[in-house]
Every structure is written in C-alpha cells, then in structure tokens.
C-alpha cells in the first residue's frame, strides 16, 4: 500500500513529469516499494535506469524493461538485490538522468540523506558532480524517516526533495 501511495506522490513531481531518463532502484527489505513507480514511469515513456552493484560497491546501470527484465543477484554475504538483466551501460550512464531517485534510511530538515553506509550513492553523486550533470535528487522514504538531523560529512550533498507516502517536501536548494 505504501508503495502505491509513494508512486502517486512521486508522479506528481514536475521533475518526473518532464524527465526523459530517471535513475531509480528496486526497493529491498523494508524500503518503500518502488516497482509501481518504475512501471508508471515506463508507461509514460520514461527511460528508467536501474543500478547493478559492482564488486567495489560502485554502481553500473542497465535499462528497466518491465518486471521480467530483473534478475535476483546475491552479492557475497549481503542481501540479494534485483538488478537489470540486460546489457550494462557503464557507471557513467547515470549522468544522462534528469532525476536520480535515491534510497536512504533518513533525510533531515536540511535535505541531507543518510544512506546505508556502503558509499555506492556517494560515488554516484560524486560522478554526477565531476560530469557537471545536475539531475534533480529525490529520496523515497516513509514519513517517519524524515527527521530533524542526520550526521553529515564534508562530501555529503543535500537532495532537492523527499517523497513519502503522505506527500513531497522540498529543500532550500531545490
């Protein structure tokens, strides 16, 4: 239910309405569900890129072509992830995205995102910055995961918005 509400809220974002390419991710564990959003974006004709975890925790990308285009992949002792089963486009493919949907554990009032600690999306954000790419950065969370403050380091960058099942919150830089 939260996944459908999240998709509805996210689809209200002008950025997603205008976006031609969106970098998304397949939710895992207790994360808010993303499949309904990925399918809705694809139905609109949006090119949806999904990450594939590399051995060094960086991310490669592949195109989402529907639920049958996903493969369940276990990475060592980590949880299994659903990744695109088609051709890999390379880590730089994310620089073509108009919007990057980011997973997270929390986001704070400044727009700072707390990730899982693997550094994969820190690398993505650094890659975007190096390339001069300026996609809209949007975190998908539950309402209770929007908090007063999360720890932030010098390399961390704020996001433009957070989407929860109850609505959208934008941040000053957004």
UniProtKB/TrEMBL annotation:
Q: Which Gene Ontology BP terms does the record give?
A: folic acid-containing compound biosynthetic process; tetrahydrofolate interconversion
Q: Name one GO molecular function term.
A: ATP binding
Annotated substrate binding sites: 26, 31
What keywords tag this UniProt record?
ATP-binding, Ligase, Magnesium, Metal-binding, Nucleotide-binding
Catalysed reaction equations from the record: (6S)-5-formyl-5,6,7,8-tetrahydrofolate + ATP = (6R)-5,10-methenyltetrahydrofolate + ADP + phosphate
Among Pfam families, the record links this protein to: 5-FTHF_cyc-lig (PF01812)
Keyword hit for Metal-binding: yes
In terms of Gene3D superfamilies, this protein maps to: NagB/RpiA/CoA transferase-like
- Give the required cofactors: Mg(2+)
Root EC class: ligase
Residues involved in ATP binding: 113-121
The UniProt record lists the EC number as: 6.3.3.2
Query: Which superkingdom?
Result: Bacteria
PANTHER family named in the record? 5-FORMYLTETRAHYDROFOLATE CYCLO-LIGASE, ATPASE INHIBITOR/5-FORMYLTETRAHYDROFOLATE CYCLO-LIGASE
Family in the record:
Belongs to the 5-formyltetrahydrofolate cyclo-ligase family.
Q: Supply the NCBIfam families for this chain.
A: MTHFS_bact
Name this protein carries in UniProt:
5-formyltetrahydrofolate cyclo-ligase
What organism does the record attribute this protein to? Streptomyces corchorusii
């Amino acid at each position: 239910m939260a996944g459908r509400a999240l998709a509805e809220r996210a689809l209200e974002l002008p950025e997603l309405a205008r976006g031609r390419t969106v970098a998304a991710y397949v939710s895992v564990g207790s994360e808010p569900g993303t499949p309904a959003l990925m399918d809705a974006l694809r139905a609109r004709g949006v090119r949806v890129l999904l990450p594939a975890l590399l051995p060094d925790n960086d991310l490669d990308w592949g195109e989402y072509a529907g639920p049958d285009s996903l493969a369940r992949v276990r990475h060592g002792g980590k949880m299994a992830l659903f990744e695109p089963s088609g051709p890999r486009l390379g880590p730089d493919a994310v620089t073509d995205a108009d919007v990057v949907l980011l997973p997270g554990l929390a986001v704070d009032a400044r727009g700072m995102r707390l990730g899982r600690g693997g550094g994969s999306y820190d690398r993505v954000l650094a890659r975007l910055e190096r390339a001069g790419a300026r996609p809209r950065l949007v975190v998908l969370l539950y309402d209770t995961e929007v908090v007063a403050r999360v720890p932030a380091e010098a390399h961390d960058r704020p996001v433009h918005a957070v989407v929860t099942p109850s609505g959208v919150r934008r941040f000053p830089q957004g």
